[in-house]
Amino acid sequence: MNEHAEFVLMKAPSLLEKLEKDTPARWGQMNAQQMLEHIILTVKIANGKLDPGLGISQEEAEKKKELLLSDRLFERNMHNPLMPAKPRPAHYPSFEDARNKLLNELEDMKAFMREHSGAMPVHPLFGALTLEEWLLFHHNHIMHHFSQFGLI
């Protein structure tokens, strides 16, 4: 297991134990539950459960994918042009429900990766990603948001 897989599939779930409903963000507008729900959506794309399609041109996606593959961490307050300016309202009834859903989706992602090793789910900004590239994305994305909430 490489460092990205180890972080996403092993370390991130244990770090979630430190997150509380009222943990304040160090930056940005999302609260803790909104952050969890935001990550859930991206994990569901990697699981093959959600297919929002490519939200930009293939040419733009290829440029953005180069940045992803550079292994640079995401910057504070960076904005995804496909996301609304204001955070989405909470979808799950409680913070605990959202945290449990994220843990379940990460487990489902492990199973999906075992069963579909050649899959290339399409990320809305980066295009089709191999499962290794998805792990790199999730590593950077989760690190970004866990840092936002002081978990790392």
What does this structure look like?
By secondary structure, the protein is mostly helical. About 50% of the residues lie in helices and about 5% in strands. It is built from 5 helices and 2 strands. It has helices at about 5-15, 30-45, 60-70, 95-115, 130-150, and strands at about 120-125, 125-130. It has a two-stranded antiparallel sheet. A hairpin with a 3-residue loop joins strand 1 and strand 2 (about 125-130). The radius of gyration is 15 Å and the shape is globular. It starts with a helix and ends with a helix. The model has no long low-confidence stretch (mean pLDDT about 90).
The overall pLDDT, averaged over residues, is 92
Number of strands: 2
Q: Which percent range describes the beta-strand content?
A: under 5%
Question: Per the principal axes of the C-alpha atoms, what is the gross shape?
Answer: globular
Ends apart, CA distance between termini: 21 Å
